[in-house]
Design a protein that fits this description.
alpha+beta, five-stranded antiparallel sheet, Uridine Diphospho-n-acetylenolpyruvylglucosamine Reductase, domain 2, globular, 17 helices, Uridine Diphospho-n-acetylenolpyruvylglucosamine Reductase, domain 3, Alpha-Beta Plaits
Amino acid sequence: MSSQADLAPELLSELAALLGDRVSTAAIVREHHGKDTTFHPSHPPQAVVFPESSDEVCRLVQACTRHRAPIIPYGAGTSAEGHISALHGGVTVDMSRMNRVLRVSPEDLDVTVEAGVTRKQLNRFLHDTGLFFPIDPGADASLGGMAATRASGTNAVRYGTMKENVLSAAVVLPSGQLIRSARRARKSAAGYDLTSLFVGSAGTLGIITEVTLRLYGIPEEIAAGVCSFPSLAAAVATTIGLIQAGVPIARVELMDELSMRALNAHAKLGLSVAPTLIFELHGTRSAVAEQAALVTAFAGEHGGDAIAWQTRQEERNRLWQARHDVYFALLAQRPGSEGWPTDVCVPVSRLADCIDETLSDLRSCSLPVAILGHVGDGNFHLLFAVDPSKSAELAEAKDFNDRLIRRAISMDGTCTGEHGIGYAKLDYMELEHGGAVAVMSAVKNSIDPLGLLNPGKVIG
């Protein structure tokens, strides 16, 4: 497979016969589908298709396989490590028109949706059922994409990640065969766990067209609170203490001074420009009151300010929307810059060490860089604001990212807690997994022997 071989005219004719005007070779459409939200350069496909059913996905994949054309699945384009880049050209399969909620079972606390349904769309649909889907990576990502990248986010400390919340998936293999990875039973000992194999595979093993997800009851009471600290170390120590004490926090988000300054400028919140934790608590009214008292006490022991708890949905939504927008708020502090976001995850017991060593390393960094993250599960992020036209800045960010990743892995952590490998972190798979990478390659070669599905990602 050449790096940028032209698509066979016969393939484009077959795709047009199958999908009509839902095939595009327009430059603006191709460029949009080759660029994520970060500094990574655009690698556009040669065509973009918009299927509306699993059957259409099966048939277009069969056509691409016959003509040896790379196939790149696309959800909402919100990935951060180059997952959607068409490194070898080919056909991008945009799943946005597969956006139907197929079935809800309130009695079973589960739902089946097509891959293009977004998390906000699903929760709007569920509003009158008293149920919700809690995985919240910030962006209004598609649920198929969230499954493919094993997304998590702010609620993971309480509800887990997509790994724990996908019960089964419908997947189109490179042959064009549609399989279902599991039934809806909450547990099974029947054979290999194929659901877990496809969740996190980033479209390198198959195209997810449907997912069946766990649902949860909307809590009786939800409270959010903001607490500033004299140092990041004090904020991290508070988090570790709460987790080890078993306080059932739903969310706990860390932001440094730079993040808070950007957040205030963007959302006009008027919060202290200091290391900060944002908490959210779920439960009954009495349980939330008890949790709030415990959080306040732990924070106070580490110099945290008094916490004003908010239970009104409008105030909570405003706070969390600001948190989710902090990426763009930070870039606005340096006009013309692009973001280089990275993340690592370590055992919670090593979180303080990892952040402390990272802070020491940052003292010699000339770039604007913010620390923030979902510290309740040991996951934190760095965001560099870089000028992509300046090679020295890119080199400095690359070197710092390398040191951060090696530091996390040396603490028995991972090079990415939620962003994924894409192609940007390929170099660290061997360091983290050793000989297990060969097993992953064997799985990939068995399912996709021609290497057509999202080539150049996850394992190269």
